[in-house]
Write a structure and sequence with these properties.
This protein has 329 residues and is an alpha+beta fold. The chain contains 5 helices and 16 strands. It has 2 domains: 25-153, no CATH class; 157-326. The mean pLDDT is 93.
């Protein structure tokens, strides 16, 4: 179901000035909503304690302004770092839908959270030290979190394995594809949809609906036609890299078809023509379904193969772009 936050206290999700009393559920609910978004951006949960110069309300505002709307990229390392980019998108069905949501003035293609929130450039009563917390303060936090529900994450695909038909029992270097009458070279790798953590609680992409704008971005160093698959086999790229014949050589795990594109090995996502040095974008139902499967817990492994032929070995750089909406809950 589409994301619909539940706020226990108030009328239609809002506190009424001069009537509503602040309840313990109010900061608890807001903190839970903040932590859900921090988890989506590969960050740990925050707690709200008392500090000499900072109120719990101030800490929550800072989290929304900083770590959520300006999430730190590259938190999982790698080269390029993962995630490569994260931004929240304006979710309302109006002329600004899909623009990047920012906490302040921005350029073309952006929506200023505060211009929509209160017609200003910051929170109402930026400092609440020494004064009462008002209904408007909590209503602004609630509204901002309701709007921060649609995102676009860009994750590098680490092409860590090569499958070479002329050396079928040897692990090969990833990141390249080739196809000629003599043989074929395919490449496979993984994206980091989640970070380290307890099973089922890892920070990263979970509990979201993948949108049609999601895509695979491919840059090739030669013109070529490529097929992209979601690899359904569990592969240990670091300690037991795959070969043309086996996805797990140390455990005698053989592909259902040599080269890793058998029915039990891979799910087809789509085919695309790549022009040398230009970004080719592959979207559509196959991509959306595959990325949704990964978000829901399937393996984040992918395989690419050249479907035309030529003398060149083609080098590839690949990114996975996931656009999503939060789900209910």
């Amino acid at each position: 179901m589409a994301y619909q936050p539940h706020w226990e206290n108030g009328t239609s999700g809002r506190l009424v000035g001069g009537q509503s009393l602040l309840r313990l559920s109010d900061p608890t609910e807001v903190l839970a909503a903040i932590n859900r978004r921090l988890a989506l951006t590969y960050q740990g949960a925050m707690s709200v304690g008392l500090a000499p110069a900072v109120t719990p309300l101030g800490l929550m505002r800072s989290a929304v302004m900083g770590n959520i709307l300006g999430p730190p990229v590259g938190t999982l390392g790698g080269q390029p770092p993962s995630p490569d980019a994260m931004c929240w998108l304006w979710p309302e069905p109006d002329a600004d839908e899909g623009k990047t949501l920012v906490a302040g003035p921005g350029g073309a293609g952006t929506v200023n959270l505060f211009a929509r929130l209160n017609g200003g450039s910051g929170w109402t009563d930026p400092s609440v030290i020494g004064q009462y917390v008002r209904a408007v303060h909590w209503n602004e936090l609630r509204q901002s979190l309701e709007w921060i529900r649609r995102g676009r994450w860009r994750l590098p695909l680490y092409l860590a394995g090569g499958l070479f038909s002329l050396a079928p029992d040897m692990a090969w270097v990833g990141g390249m594809v080739g196809r000629s009458q003599a043989g074929e070279l395919r490449t496979c790798g993984f994206a980091k949809f989640r970070g380290p953590g307890a099973a089922g609680q890892e920070p990263g992409l979970r509990g979201v609906d993948v949108l049609e704008g999601s895509r695979i971005e491919i840059t090739a160093d030669c013109d070529c036609d490529l097929a992209v698959y979601r690899c359904t086999r569990a592969i240990d790229f670091a300690n037991d890299p795959p070969t043309w014949n086996q996805y797990a050589p140390a455990g005698a795990g053989a592909w259902s078809a040599p080269g890793g594109l058998g029915e039990a090995d891979a799910e087809w996502m789509g085919q695309i023509h790549a022009t040398s040095g230009q970004v080719a974008s592959l979207g559509g139902e196959g991509v959306t379904a595959a990325l949704q499967a990964v978000v829901d817990g399937a393996l984040p492994n992918f395989t690419l193969a050249r479907v035309d032929s030529g003398p060149e070995t083609v080098g590839l750089t690949v990114f996975v772009v996931v656009e999503f909406d939060l789900r209910e809950g």
